[in-house]
Amino acid sequence: MSHFRALMAGAVLLAAAIAVPHAASPEGSSGLESTRATLTKWVETQEIIARERKDWQQAKELLTSRIEVVGKEIEMVEAQLAQARSERGEADEAHAAVMSEIRAVQETTSRLNGHLAELESRARRLYESLPASLTEKIKPLYDRMPADAAAAARVTMAERFQNVLGILGEINRLNTEITVASEIRPLSDGKPSQVKTIYLGLGQAYYVSAGGEAGVGRPSDTGWVWEPTPGLAMQINDVLEVIQNKASPHFVPLPVTLK
Predict the structure, then answer these.
(1) How many domains, the chain?
(2) Is 108 domain-assigned?
């Protein structure tokens, strides 16, 4: 506004200066009017320029403020993008670690499956080499072992390991105990007869019939082999009386074959 007032004052002084020399001349009146019109246009032009300058200043300030806001928004978005990239990187690393663990578990499971199949095969062979009278507790576990790959796929690895460990545990128990069993075995007349059999673990056995026939049994790759051994009936009966607490413990000589 002070600038505008200064312009107006200058314009008035200029108009006065121009008007004085021509005041007495009629011909100067038209020139004065023309000068005044020119000054009026000039003042209007200056006012327009001032308004445009003011509007531009306001627009500039508004635009600058908007640029600052947009700049802050851009910084915020960039920070969010950086955080998202960081989180995505962490997620990718975690996913890679999980996938690595899964592959390791799959490889371990594959190896365990191979070992488990071998263990089941060995447990099956051990079971089949046992005397029938000693398989009562083991048979349920043996029956649960899968017979082929299709059956194995329907049983969890944990269950299969439990079956094998159960069979091996029971076989180990039998191998550390003295067991007496009543069995049917063909004797010298070829007829099946009931005998009492004493198993020393799973490495040696002796049997005796009510008629006094006796023999020795030993395990082999094809099952137990029984050999009649005349003259052992008395010793075997003596051992039976000790086991059944019918006689005091004492030394009884019996033949043993170690392999």
Answers:
(1) 3
(2) no
Residue 121 is classified by DSSP as H
- 159 with 186, same domain? no
Indicate whether 164 and 182 sit together in one domain: no
Same domain, yes or no: 182 and 232 = yes
Residue 158 CA to residue 140 CA, distance in Å, equals 17
pLDDT digits 0-9 by tens, 41-87:
888 888 888 888 888 888 888 888 888 888 888 888 888 888 888 88
Residue 172 sits in the same domain as residue 185: no
Q: Rounded distance, CA 114 to CA 121, Å?
A: 11
Structure tokens at 195: 């005998």
Maximum Cα–Cα distance for the chain, whole Å? 178
Q: Is 2 a member of any domain?
A: yes
Contact 115, 167 (CB under 8 A): no
Three-class secondary structure of residue 215 per DSSP:
strand
Give the domain extent around 42: 1-8+35-54
Tokens 């806001």 found at: 69
What is the average pLDDT score of the chain? 83
Average pLDDT over residues 167-175: 91
User: Sign of dihedral through CA atoms 95, 97, 98, 103?
Assistant: positive
Q: Is the dihedral of CA 217, 221, 223, 225 positive or negative?
A: negative
pLDDT tens for each residue of 14-29: 444 444 444 444 555 6
Backbone angles phi, psi at 193, to 5 degrees: -135, 155
Q: Are residues 159 and 197 in the same domain?
A: no
For residues 206 and 217, is the Cβ–Cβ distance under 8 A? yes
CA angle 122, 126, 127 (to 5 degrees): 115
- Residue 198 falls within a domain, yes or no? yes
